[in-house]
């Protein structure tokens, strides 16, 4: 049947399949493989965990418009722990996936210049660097949704002003290192952006080990004073 259908019809049919089914079909014959590799088939990509990025069941290209990497798992809590506070087990757990999203976004920056919408949720290992790279490389970006991305800071907000000329909607929910000052800066300098930031500026930000240790030592000393008094 596929031999009697043109490329556009086959693209339309395969667009109803999930990534794994699409790849399975592509392995049946050369013609379907060509359709599978056609960038027009991949205007939308949804991933529900970093491990899905390892699978060879999708194609990155200039036709990608909508991208989402969302991870809702108990392991996200481990990723969100500050690196210097993690025990060896937690470090080993994170080492298996900590660079996956970052490496993937690097490929997006070089291969997907026409991206319109990016959603990253529960991606605890991405930093300002990766988000800024997307802003610089994907000038047509209209929507940026960051949720529970704990390493994202006000540097990303500053980059929105410099490189996010096309942005209309920005969400930075539960990003603990975003500050009220950063949000206010965006509202003043980019009033055209519809900005939402649930809980972000009200969370406890990261702090350096020496500062944490100083607080811990002060509390310990206070307890000893109270015990002796």
Task: Please describe what this structure looks like.
InterPro entries: F-box_dom (IPR001810), Leu-rich_rpt_Cys-con_subtyp (IPR006553), LRR_dom_sf (IPR032675). The longest helix is centred in the last third of the chain and has 20 residues, at 209-228. 26% of the residues are buried. The chain is α/β, with parallel strands linked by helices and 229 residues long. The chain starts with 6 loop residues before the first helix and ends with a helix. Helix 7 links the parallel strand 3 and strand 4. It has a 6-stranded parallel sheet, with helices on one face. The chain is built from 10 helices and 6 strands, in the order H-H-H-E-E-H-H-H-E-H-E-H-E-H-E-H. Helix 7 packs parallel to helix 8 and helix 8 runs parallel beside helix 9 (180-189).
**Strand order, sheet with most strands:** 1-2-3-4-5-6
Shape: globular
**Which band does the percent of strand residues land in?**
5-15%
Q: Please work out how many helical segments DSSP would assign.
A: 10
Short description:
It contains 10 helices and 6 strands.
Features:
about 230 residues, alpha/beta, 6-stranded parallel β-sheet, 6 strands
Give the SSE layout:
Elements: H1 7-14, H2 19-26, H3 30-36, E1 44-47, E2 66-70, H4 75-79, H5 88-95, H6 100-111, E3 117-121, H7 128-137, E4 143-147, H8 154-163, E5 169-173, H9 180-189, E6 194-196, H10 209-228
Parallel strand pairs: 1-2, 2-3, 3-4, 4-5, 5-6
């Amino acid at each position: 049947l596929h031999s009697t259908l043109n490329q556009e019809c086959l693209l339309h049919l395969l667009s109803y399949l999930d990534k794994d089914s699409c790849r399975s079909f592509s392995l049946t014959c050369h013609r379907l493989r060509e359709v599978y590799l056609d960038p027009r088939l991949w205007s939308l990509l949804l991933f529900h965990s970093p491990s899905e990025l390892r699978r060879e069941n999708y194609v990155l290209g200039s036709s990608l418009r909508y991208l989402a990497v969302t991870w809702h798992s108990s392991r996200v809590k481990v990723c969100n722990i500050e690196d210097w506070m993690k025990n060896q087990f937690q470090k080993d757990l994170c080492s298996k996936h900590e660079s996956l999203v970052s490496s993937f976004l690097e490929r997006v920056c070089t291969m997907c210049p026409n991206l319109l919408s990016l959603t990253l949720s529960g991606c605890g290992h991405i930093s300002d660097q990766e988000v800024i790279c997307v802003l610089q490389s994907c000038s047509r970006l209209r929507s940026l949704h960051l949720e529970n991305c704990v390493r994202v800071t006000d540097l990303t907000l500053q980059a929105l002003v410099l490189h996010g000329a096309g942005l209309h909607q920005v969400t930075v929910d539960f990003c603990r290192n975003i500050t009220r000052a950063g949000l206010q800066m965006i509202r003043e300098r980019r009033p055209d952006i519809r900005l939402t930031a649930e809980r972000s500026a009200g969370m406890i930000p990261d702090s350096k080990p020496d500062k944490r240790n100083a607080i811990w030592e002060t509390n310990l000393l206070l307890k000893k004073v109270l015990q002796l008094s």
